[in-house]
């Protein structure tokens, strides 16, 4: 009897356990369904917020949707290769107040970039930073490549001066993958003073956009000499190289450090092959005092939306140079390398004045030709 009672209790408790399990499963199932819908809806709300001003039209719509509206889950996957791009990556901390220059853009960029890396094609550059050496070309390259619609080669390919024999396919192969909407860019400062470069570039494409970063030719020459001196400490003093006869004030225009700064001469050569409107001149001086202003004009010239603004920069007083901000998550801000903005060797006041004299007619002609006064006096 006792045995029977037990077994019947056992049976009903088994039944109870079964019903309990089933109802628990049901609850769980319902909960899961509801929860998922909730998540989906909140994701849609999230995406809607981030992606509402979709600028993609026509055939690009699908791809655009994929890039701009990837769900957070997708994003964490695709952000990785972007992060690997290294120290040149700069963006505002996400959630930064204000307009499109904030974290949103950075996120969109990361997604765009990784899409480009996977699906884009290698293309010949549509824009080149062609000079000048010691003008601030590295800074312009590092600043402009924050822009989501710019993909730049980090190294100097020297194609139109040293490697032209390797052919355009070799050159194209060096380029980063880009989407149709993105600009491919490289910089090689020696192009500006290379006789054959303008012709070669125009035979690649007559529509190539050319950026020249210029700077007071005297300061440029001293900076150039300082760089050489740091590699070869045995070279003669600056004034021995700069003059054929210093007491007569005869400058040695065949010395490269002097020759590069005769901008008007080199520019003539470029204007044999390009319209002036295809060239943009960045002031190396203003690039330091007002990087956002200079980069605003570079973006306009390249037909880009002004995304790089003063929010991206801060001024490092020790270095005397603007640096790029980094998002909180990735530590160090991006300043240019140690060699940039190094202190120049001291040059006698008299030597500087003699060189100013030497350059004056070239400067005047240069200002007239480009229709801008860079104020180098
Ligand atoms: C991302 O790429 C799409 C398609 O290439 C482009 O239309 C869009 O403007 C890009 N987004 C940004 C922020 O540049
Ligand atoms: C520079 O010119 C002066 C005057 O003509 C001359 O006496 C001197 O020898 C010259 N110096 C050099 C290094 O040629
Ligand atoms: C400023 O530059 C100096 C010298 O290069 C560097 O040691 C320092 O960390 C920089 N400070 C900031 C805040 O970037």
Q: What is this entry, summarized?
A:
The protein is α/β, with parallel strands linked by helices and 377 residues long.
Walk me through what this model shows:
With 377 residues, the chain is α/β, with parallel strands linked by helices. The chain has helices at 2-51, 61-68, 72-83, 103-119, 137-144, 167-174, 197-204, 217-231, 238-242, 256-259, 263-271, 284-289, 291-301, 349-370, and strands at 121-122, 127-131, 150-152, 177-178, 183-187, 209-214, 243-245, 250-251, 279-283, 313-316, 321-324. The strands form four sheets. A five-stranded parallel beta sheet has the order 3-5-2-6-9. Strands 1-4 form a two-stranded antiparallel ribbon. It has a two-stranded antiparallel sheet with strand order 7-8. Strand 10 and strand 11 (321-324) form a beta hairpin. Helix 3 (72-83) crosses helix 4 (103-119) and helix 11 packs parallel to helix 14. Mean pLDDT is 78; it is low at 36-104. Bound molecules: 2-acetamido-2-deoxy-beta-D-glucopyranose (NAG) (3 copies). One 2-acetamido-2-deoxy-beta-D-glucopyranose is lined by residues 316, 318-319, 323, 333, 335.
Helix content: 40-55%
Rg, Cα atoms, Å: 30 Å
Beta content? 5-15%
Structural class: alpha/beta
As laid out across the biggest beta sheet, the strand order is 3-5-2-6-9
CATH topology of the domain at 118-370: Rossmann fold
CATH architecture of the domain at 118-370: 3-Layer(aba) Sandwich
**Unreliable runs, pLDDT <50, ≥5 residues?**
36-104
What's the level 1 CATH class of the domain at 118-370? Alpha Beta
Head-to-tail CA distance between termini: 116 Å
Mean pLDDT: 78
- CATH fourth-tier homologous superfamily of the domain at 118-370: P-loop containing nucleotide triphosphate hydrolases
Largest sheet: 5 strands, parallel
* CA-based shape: elongated
Number of H- or I-type helical stretches: 14
- List the ligand species: 2-acetamido-2-deoxy-beta-D-glucopyranose
Count the strands? 11
Order of helices and strands: HHHHEEHEHEEHEHHEEHHEHHEEH
């Amino acid at each position: 009897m006792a045995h029977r009672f037990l077994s019947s209790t056992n049976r009903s408790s088994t039944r109870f356990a079964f019903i309990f399990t089933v109802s628990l499963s049901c609850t769980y199932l319902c909960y899961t369904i509801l929860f998922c819908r909730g998540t989906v809806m909140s994701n849609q709300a999230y995406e809607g917020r981030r992606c509402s001003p979709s600028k993609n039209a026509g055939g690009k719509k699908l791809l655009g949707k994929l890039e701009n509206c990837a769900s957070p889950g997708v994003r964490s996957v695709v952000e990785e290769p972007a992060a690997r791009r290294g120290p040149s990556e700069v963006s505002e901390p996400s959630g930064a107040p204000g307009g499109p220059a904030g974290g949103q853009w950075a996120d969109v960029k990361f997604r765009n970039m990784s899409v480009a890396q996977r699906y884009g094609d290698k293309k010949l550059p549509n824009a080149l930073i062609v000079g000048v050496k010691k003008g601030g070309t590295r800074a312009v390259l590092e600043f402009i490549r924050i822009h989501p619609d710019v993909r730049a080669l980090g190294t100097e390919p020297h194609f139109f001066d040293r490697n032209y024999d390797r052919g355009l396919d070799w050159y194209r192969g060096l380029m980063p993958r880009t989407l149709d909407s993105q600009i491919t860019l490289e910089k090689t400062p020696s192009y500006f003073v290379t006789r054959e470069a303008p012709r070669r570039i125009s035979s690649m494409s007559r529509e190539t956009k050319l950026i020249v970063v210029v700077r007071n030719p005297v300061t440029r020459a001293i900076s150039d000499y300082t760089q050489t001196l740091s590699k070869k400490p045995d070279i003669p003093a600056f004034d021995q190289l700069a003059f054929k006869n210093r007491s007569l004030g005869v400058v040695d225009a065949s010395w490269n450090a002097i020759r590069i700064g005769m901008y008007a001469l080199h520019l003539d050569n470029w204007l044999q092959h390009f319209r002036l409107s295809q060239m943009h001149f960045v002031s190396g001086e203003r690039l330091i005092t007002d990087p956002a202003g200079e980069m605003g004009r570079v973006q306009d010239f390249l037909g880009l939306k002004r995304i790089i603004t003063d929010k991206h920069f801060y001024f490092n007083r020790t270095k005397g140079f603007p640096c790029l901000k980094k998002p909180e998550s990735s530590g160090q801000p991006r300043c240019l390398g140690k060699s940039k903005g190094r202190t120049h060797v001291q040059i006698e006041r008299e030597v500087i004045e003699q060189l100013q004299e030497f350059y004056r007619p070239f400067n005047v002609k240069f200002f007239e030709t480009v229709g801008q006064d860079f104020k180098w006096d």
